[in-house]
Design goal:
Blueprint (H helix, E strand, L loop, with lengths): L2 H13 L13 H13 L5 H10 L6 E8 L5 E5 L3 H12 L7 H8 L4 E4 H4 L8 H5 L6 E11 L3 E10 L7 H9 L1 H11 L22 H10 L5 H12 L3 H8 L3 H15 L4 H16 L1
Antiparallel strand pairs: 1-2, 1-5, 3-4, 4-5
Length: 292
């Protein structure tokens, strides 16, 4: 089979039907060509574009971005195709602190199983009411975000996000299932291409494993607020910032919702604030100093 002609004929067919982009059926000759392009481009600068083309042959999406995460270090953007203005929100501003509250970043930190995830399935119960969502995430203008998560040696996680803007529909159940079915292929290809990423992180890759069981957000809260709040209040602050309700926090910490509310009142009094919005503002004002 002349796979180059197969793919050319498929692309020509797609181009001839504006507004009705017929997608490749997994397993047909055109899909094999796209996979072979991905394989051939491993370790080259063309790999991300080849991977994007392969995924877009399954279903459309507006943006794709890939971050590498390692423990308490700032993430590394491995690939994006944003315009300069879009990059400011999706990459530059994200790396200034919002990544700490990103549900996908937190999922990587928890070591969830490799696979494809919808944001709404792993986000806290009050995510849409959280200050992270209101102050940062709405600026992205996204209708939906789904993410492949997989791992490299030395506890480095890779998150490959596919996004649709608010002018596009959400991913349908069928589209998600198709993208989920190729997760092992995406993971295998990307793991080979980005196998050197663990060497890009500076701290802790060859040293002894940390015994600190606290989350990265809890450590950041401690660094910002120090002894002004107790260890239990630190846990509550971290989960409030993440977007958990008092009921969700009570389940996670094994205390009553009423006790959580008392902790929140005490925290606000100690910090001289009166709202979650003020807490969020202090956190992101101070987190840059902590990072520095």
């Amino acid at each position: 089979v002349d796979y180059r002609n197969v793919l050319f004929n498929h692309e020509a067919s797609m181009a001839s039907k504006p507004g009705r982009r017929k997608k490749i059926d997994l397993g047909d000759a055109a899909w094999v060509v796209l996979l072979s392009r991905c394989i051939d481009s491993i370790d080259s600068e063309d790999f991300p574009e080849c991977l994007v083309a392969a995924l877009k042959s399954i279903t459309d999406f507006d943006y794709l971005v890939c971050f590498g995460y390692h423990q308490k270090e700032q993430p590394i953007c491995l690939y994006h195709a944003f315009s300069s203005d879009e990059r400011v929100v999706f990459v530059d501003d994200y790396l200034k602190g919002p990544y700490l509250l990103d549900p996908f970043s937190q999922a990587c930190g928890r070591g969830v199983d490799s696979g494809l995830y919808r944001l709404r399935d792993i986000a806290p119960d009050r995510f849409l009411q959280s200050e992270y969502y209101r102050s940062y995430y709405v600026r992205t203008g996204l209708a939906e975000e789904i993410c492949y998560i997989f791992y490299l040696p030395n506890d480095v996680a890779i998150a490959l996000s596919l996004m649709r803007s608010d002018t596009s529909p959400r991913f349908s159940a069928r589209e998600f299932k198709l993208l989920e079915s190729v997760a092992p292929i995406v993971s295998s290809l990307a793991q080979r291409h980005w196998q050197g990423v663990p060497n890009w992180f500076e701290d802790g890759l060859s040293g002894p494993e940390s015994t600190d069981s606290r989350s990265i957000i809890e450590n950041t809260v401690t660094a910002i607020f120090g002894p002004r709040i107790t260890p239990r209040e630190t846990q509550v602050v971290a989960q409030v910032l993440e977007g958990h309700s008092s009921e969700s926090i009570s389940r996670r910490l094994g205390i009553s919702a009423g006790t959580v509310r008392i902790h929140r009142r005490n925290i606000y009094a100690k910090l001289g604030i009166s709202s979650q919005q003020e807490l969020f503002s202090i956190f992101f004002r101070e987190v840059r100093t902590v990072q520095a």
